[in-house]
Amino acid sequence: MPDESGPLSISEQLAGDYHSVFQNKDLIEPETIVDEDRIVGRDEQLNLIINTLKPALHDEHPEDMLLRGPSGTGKTLCAGTVANKTMEIGAERGIEIEYIEVNGKHKKSEHEAVHQIAHSLEMSLDLEQTAKRGISTSSKYDRIFEIIDEHLDLAIVVLDELDLLVGETRSKDEVPAFSDILYNLTRSKRIGNMDSSISLIVTTNSPRSLMDGLNSRTASTFNPSEISFDDYDAYELTEILEYRRDAFRKGVLGDGVIELVAAASAQGEGDARFAIDLLREAGNIVNRLEDDMVLERHVEQARDEVEKNYVADIVEKVSHQKQVSLLATALVAIHGNPVLEREPILRSNCVPSSVGYTLYRWVQEQSNSEVRSKHSYLRWMRELSTYEVIKNKRRGRGNEQGMFSEYAFPHLNPESIVQIIVEDDPLLSEIIGDKETIRTIARSNLTEFAS
Fold it and tell me: Exposed, middle or buried by CB within 10 Å (0-12, 13-18, 19+), for 165?
């Protein structure tokens, strides 16, 4: 006879009781707005956005805006919330306003982004849908201008993470896709012969990359009001998380858990999304372990996994130039490892900036892309270090030979970094397939650096 006290079958385990620490998990999703009229720690920025959009409710064209600051600091949340409220109040006053949002990270080309704007307007106004393919980009712009002029007084277009919309082509002579989009939308009245208006709200983690990417004609027409979003501090993150406490069943959050999550997030990213993700993952760990309460040890276990996901997300979002800088540095760590381990002045998996820059130049040349200065490379790597994608340390070479920067990979190993960057980029994938050349460049330059 079978042993009735033996382990349960898979079917029996799946069919058994399930006890979750969550009672409303939607509240612990970063995209969930708990209270539109109470956005923590962003009163100054909200007031500036409100005062910039308010003219739309008094028959005046609002200025364009540029919201700048790190990820997870409330830029899109504030823009979307105020834009929605403006639309609602406009409807009460007989003013036809629509709000459309496009994320540059998720669009590969100008055509895709322009199609989404047209598609969103058609969906919102219950109009006939135009095809995505077989219609030129200029015709898509004409469709947008036609819809707005015939049906609206104002369209508020939020271009989220716009600096990431570089486009599919990356030759030296072509401007990024975001430059052309800004040019056409800021000149919509003239190009589309419109009486109605388009107001732009652009968000970016890297305002310098955005503004440097504009050609002269776009720079002359896009003159936004700039609003800065700083990192959240521990107090603000605690308040944000307290608003989401009801995601958990009463009594399952241990003492000090919310404060620990807030402190850990403030010390690293100052990012509300990171804090929310960390608290949610701690709850997931408790469920997987079938524990009863979320305790500080669960937060510590969750932190490593969330940091890896966070770094991967940042790597996917940053501009092409930053990705290539990071890719080249990771390739040196991979293919130069024997020299890194052998030479006394070098350290395993720590890449000197000059060698990383040399390989960056080679990759850009192979792809016929613009090669920027070493100063730009160093600046981009410093920025990536602030996001904790890499660790940037200054070291002395000894014998009065000065200082140098070296880069290490604290969360994601170099192989994972490379995989993320080349996954959706066939050209880069082909370039890094020349392992012999990369190995020669990395090792010869590391040896020369160490001599």
Answer: buried
- Give the predicted TM-score (pTM) of the model: 0.76
Closest to 79 (Cα-Cα) out of 234, 199, 230, 240: 199
Residues written for the chain: 451
What is the model's pLDDT at position 17? 63
| Euclidean distance between CA atoms 212 and 208, whole angstroms | 6
Handedness of CA 333, 390, 68, 310 (dihedral sign): positive
Across the chain, mean pLDDT equals 88
What tens digit of pLDDT does each residue of 197-238 get? 999 999 998 888 788 889 999 999 999 999 999 989 999 999
Residue 358 to residue 233: CA distance in whole angstroms: 38
Q: How far apart are CA 147 and CA 144, in angstroms?
A: 5
Strand partners, 98: 155
Mark 41-72 as b/e (b = at least 16 C-beta within 10 Å).
bbeebbebbeebbeebbeeeebebbbbbbbbb
Largest CA distance in the chain: 86
4 falls in which pLDDT band (50, 70, 90)? low
- Predicted confidence band of residue 185 (pLDDT cuts 50, 70, 90): very high
Q: What is the pLDDT of residue 8?
A: 67
Q: What is the pLDDT of residues 265-319, one digit of tens each?
A: 888 767 888 899 999 999 999 999 989 999 999 999 998 888 888 888 888 878 7
**284-289, long-range: CB within 8 Å, 24+ apart, which pairs?**
286/21, 286/252, 287/20, 287/21, 287/22
- Report the percent of the chain where pLDDT is more than 70: 92
Cα–Cα dist 60/87, whole Å: 14
CA 305 distance to own-chain centroid: 18
Query: Rounded distance, CA 304 to CA 285, Å?
Result: 12
Q: What is the pLDDT of residue 345?
A: 77
Alpha-carbon gap, residue 201 to 52, rounded angstroms: 10
